[in-house]
Amino acid sequence: MKYKLSLLLTLFSINLISEEQLYLVDLILIKYLPEFETDEKFLPPELDIPKNITILAEFPYPELEVNTLSFNLGYKFQDLFMSVKIEEDSDLLLPEDEILSNEAVPILEAKKSVFEIDSAREFSLAAEVSKIARSRDFRVISTKSWFQNIKNKDEAEIVFIDSDFFKGTRIFGFFKLYKERFLHFNSELFLSELDPLFSQEEKFIVGKNIFNEEREIDIFNEKNQKVLFEVKHSKKFRSGELHYVDHPKFGMLVKLTKAQKEFFSPDNDLTKNQ
């Protein structure tokens, strides 16, 4: 009996409990910069809004008031110094094989939720972002990262992803992750660009956030945008693999990693005072 009680207390004191169906999704949304000559004809994108959409949320960190310096120091060449851009040293980047070998299991903290973007958590594809940013052929439009549980195809959530506009370009669309015999993801992405001569009509999507609250979003809140290209992709994969959704004009890097859920905070030790 004493042994069973000790074993029970040990199980309850475990801080991390493996949850095979929990995964971390990491995305990099990319635009091609060169205007490649191609004979390929692109059909006008057809934006069909799926049902049962899940809308990502931002983890609510408290806002901090920071008193910033004005930098009005009266220096003769002040504007020149303020325009200097510091580039990352490529020698500081870890090689890909070392990154993979040292990669830890992602942890979803107890106080945080699935489908919630944590801006303070280190992005697992940071090295890839740095490499792409130094290339003249690509531009990183946005990155996204969230945890979610894997369900079967019929019950799986369809996640709305949106880069917002960056340097006149926006990539948005829908992402579905599910499991049958293998893990699968389906994606439908669109690229739009600002065009002052074009006026977009309203188009609403209805979805739910992590609190199961219904939200209605006009995906064309910025009216002067034109949807130019569309790419659909379906892929089966394994945990930890890096996949690329390809189109002649834009694309997406996606990585899905098996994760763990933190059920108890480190301060909540059930074995104390036992």
Structure summarized in a few sentences:
By secondary structure, this protein is mostly beta strands. The protein is built from four helices and 14 strands. The strands form three sheets. The chain has a seven-stranded mixed β-sheet with strand order 11-10-2-7-8-9-12, with no helix packed on it. Strands 1, 4, 6, 13 and 14 form a five-stranded mixed β-sheet that branches. A two-stranded parallel ribbon has the order 3-5.
Biggest sheet features: 7 strands, mixed
How many individual helices?
4
The overall number of domains is 1
Would you tell me the overall average pLDDT? 78
Percent of sequence in beta strands: 35-45%
Terminal CA distance reads: 15 Å
How much is the radius of gyration in Å?
A: 22 Å
Query: Structural class of the helices, strands and pairings?
Result: mainly beta
**Unreliably modeled segments:** 1-20, 66-102, 269-274
Q: Give the CA-based shape.
A: globular
The neighbouring-strand order within the major sheet is 11-10-2-7-8-9-12
Order of SSEs: HEEEHHEEHEEEEEEEEE
Give the helix proportion (percent range). Answer: 10-25%
Number of separate strands: 14
Quaternary assembly: single chain
